[in-house]
Design goal:
GO terms for molecular function: nucleic acid binding. With about 325 residues, the chain is α/β, with parallel strands linked by helices. It has helices spanning about 10-20, 35-50, 105-110, 140-150, 160-170, 180-190, 195-205, 210-220, 240-245, 255-260, 290-295, 315-335; strands at about 25, 55-60, 80, 90-95, 115-120, 130-135, 225, 230-235, 265-275, 275-285, 300, 305-310. The protein is built from twelve helices and twelve strands.
Length: about 325
């Protein structure tokens, strides 16, 4: 456990606060991944099992990744823009700031009696009354798993499945640097409680659309390298998606192909999205890609981070190339010193 300075409570106290309330809104970040949705739906299942009333919001009114629709409760997700109730207790999971909850910020602001954050993203600000952020946790669902136990909820079935999904996705099938003994112990507990690793793997990792595979071919073909092959970068524009009939979610797995190349320490995938460029970063070693993302106004984890640039794709490629190149040059200089 390595909580941030912004953390002002513990999971036991959060469990007590949840037990004392009955109406909940649970929200994650925009463009939710497996950990975000797993945290929302896992906590919702635990609270509903205790007789609580829960609504899970989508921070932005857009379809979730089709590979995650199997999660229990996914069909009941409500776009925040369509929510007209009152958020007596607002719980933000896997999301550290008001900016990242998108259209759900109104629910957090209007009539909210208590706001709670449970997360593993380290940032310098908070948006809640009760804050628990542990960057050492491999996934936010690991914290939700512990929280459900402290609540006295039945963790078998839906809670275990949702929490395992978040853990297996945020550790990259237990391949990333955040895979530690605690993560493996939690995974074992989740499997014992009913999570089926094989079915989760089939749903998420063996269920890509044909357009996604074709889009990966485009990205791999134009992959460029820097720092003597230490980092790889590729990019996709709107025309690439249209050419193969792909949607935004189809691009999510592609960065793993860049990361898998021998000798590559850092991978960067750029994707045109409207009038901005979204960037994703992954590291295979101890390079802090979150620091790179923060230089562009983004953030994330040491080994996985993201950012958004308001510029053309050509400008984005130049900026990212210069920044990552400078990072490796500084590391080499420090080693020589």
């Amino acid at each position: 456990m390595t909580v941030t300075p912004q953390t002002n409570t513990d999971l036991g106290s959060i469990a007590e606060a949840l037990q004392a309330h009955d109406d909940f809104i649970i929200c994650g970040h925009v463009s939710p991944d497996g950990d975000c949705l797993g945290s929302q739906l896992g906590l919702a299942a635990a609270l509903k099992g205790l007789g609580k009333r829960v609504t899970c919001l989508l921070a932005k009114d857009e379809p979730i990744d089709e590979r995650l629709v199997f999660l229990p409760g996914a069909p009941e997700l409500v776009p925040a823009s369509s929510f007209d109730g009152r958020a007596r207790t607002f719980v933000g999971v896997d999301v550290p700031t008001r900016e990242r909850i998108g259209e759900a910020a109104a629910a957090l602001r209007d009539g909210c009696e208590l706001a709670i954050t449970v997360d593993h993203h380290a940032v310098d600000t908070t948006m809640s009354d009760l804050v628990y952020v542990d960057p050492a946790a491999a996934s936010t669902t690991m914290l939700v798993w512990e929280l459900a136990d402290l609540l006295g909820a039945d963790r078998a079935g839906d809670v275990a499945l949702c929490c395992y999904t978040g853990l297996v996705t945020d550790t990259g099938r237990f391949q990333y640097q955040n895979t530690d003994a605690a993560a493996m112990r939690a995974a074992s507990e989740m499997v014992e409680a009913g999570a089926d690793p094989a079915s989760v793997s089939r749903a998420i990792f063996q269920n890509r659309t044909l357009p996604s595979v074709r889009l990966e071919g485009v990205a791999v073909e134009r992959m460029a390298f820097g720092a003597g092959g230490a980092y790889a970068m590729s990019w996709l524009v709107a025309e690439d998606f249209a050419a193969v009939g792909a949607v935004k979610a189809d691009a999510e797995p592609i960065i793993d192909a860049l990361r898998s190349v021998a000798g590559v320490r850092v991978a960067c995938m750029l994707r045109e999205q409207g009038d901005v460029v979204r960037g994703s970063l992954r590291a295979k070693d101890d390079t802090d890609v979150a620091a790179i993302a923060r230089s562009f106004g983004g953030g994330g984890h040491v080994a996985a981070a993201g950012f958004t640039l308001s510029c053309t794709m050509d400008e984005a490629r130049r900026l990212v190339d210069e920044t990552i190149g400078a990072t490796f040059a500084a590391d080499e200089g420090a080693c020589r010193a």
